[in-house]
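Batch manifest, entry 17 of 40.
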Amino acid sequence: MVEVEIPHNAEPPAWVRCDSCVTLIYAKRFTRALKVCPDCGSHTRLTARQRLEHLLDAGTAVPLDPVECVPDPLGFSDTRPYVDRLVDARAATGQRTAVLCARGTIEGRPVVVAAMDFGFLGGSLGCGEGALITAAAHTSLRMRVPLLLVTASGGARMQEGVLSLMQMAKTTNALAELDEAGILVVSLITDPTYGGVAASFATLADVIIAEPGARLGFAGPRVIEHTTGETLPEGFQTAEFLLSHGLVDDVVPRAALRATLGQLLALQPAADPEPAADPEPDAPVSAAPAATATGSGAILRRPEELTGGDSWATVQLARHPDRPTTLDYAAHLLDGFHELHGDRIAEDCAAVVGGPGLLNGRPVMLIGHQKGGTGLVERKRRKFGMPNPGGYRKAARLMRMAAKLGLPVITLIDTPGANPGPDAERTGQAGAIAANLRLMARLPVPIVAVVTGEGGSGGALALAVADRVLISANGIYSVISPEGCSAILWKDAAAAPTAAEALRVDARQLLELGIVDGVVPEPPGGAHTDHPRSATLLGAALTAALNELDPWEPERLLRDRSSRFHRFGTAHNLSVERGAL
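Output type: structure tokens
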């Protein structure tokens, strides 16, 4: 970390030294680099005022009104009276508290910012700080604009005793009000963020991003080592460590923060639109028109529009290693896509990816399986698209965020199934899948699911409880793999082609069964032959499906989604002539 000891209002030195790499840096160059070491990338601490100047568009900052609090509620004194420490902190920083709040814009997007300053009594959380964080949240609620929290703190302020502890509950309550109102909250974790701040508002945001090297935790490393006698691993509690363990969404260098925040702030609707009239409250689920705003061929809805084929050949195409992945589709289809990471509990499963972006200008939440492309090393890292419980919990977290902000959810399914390993079982694989099925059944926003490749068993269904379920022309969807079915029922793995036909796994047969609502065309030869064209075809189908669902109120979405799945297996659902059993 670069540390520059400069008294308040003093002239800055011509040269500064990076304490991480011991490099001398010309001060003006250091300032131009936003106080990031140009050699090793170490991020020095910024004051709250510097944070506002860096993040907010020039000339847009409007300070929030101050909140008066009792400065020394306990009359506390240790080696010095607390009031004397406050006087010194205010003189050194030019601030009355460790928090500065302002409203303004970032990349033209309105926002309320509450920035903490570690230079003011270690950024500790006292009554004044809690009041200002709460006031910022209430301003965000009143203006219906996102709240950005920039954290830097050693924890609760001891000199204010249990009143400081109460600020954790106060600020958490304020953020809960924003959750209920559907207002986006973003945390920017800077170094360090510990104690009561980490255990309250800092980690309750919809999106948590961190600067490189920033440390976040409840107890500091020295406390942990002293208490437990354990030696902590290298990089423990750093942003990079937290990202790998699923506790933050991303690590973003300071130079990229404004652009990243601008993309995220675009997710907040400018105003609540008037609800559209429900044209046919009692219309059946299957009443979607064949022609859509994107053209009559965007979604193929009739089995006769599809050519029959060999089911086993389709299985091979569905598994082709060159088929586009979720991240491939995101790159082609979504503007401003930002991948979010982690289940906020313990892991960031690489077999599930997701994040917000704009589909033809419409904000959406994209979630999908990620097999990893053609390289074996990457495919292994992605577990061949077979998620751990953390992958499903990450998906659930992103779905809840989408519901809060009113974003449609798009899921892209391409998995052999959920990870069957012992670690997945120990961490609750069955429960994680079940929780997703329940969550998606009642999610009050449109959901469009597309089986883009392989839809294997419950691992696929965990992302496929949707208002519209589509499948790519060469996709498959099944309760079990043909190989698994043939081994169990035929007692012969070589019978997999026969099992594939018997299971009726291909797009045409799934459409006949009513399992899927439509089929997304693919380029000649399959999606793997032309990624851009495949993405164009998928984008047209997604747009058509979302256009159909846009007018529907949440009540109709939930009613028809429930009806869709309740009818499966009933006699009237089957469109194929079957003989009586």
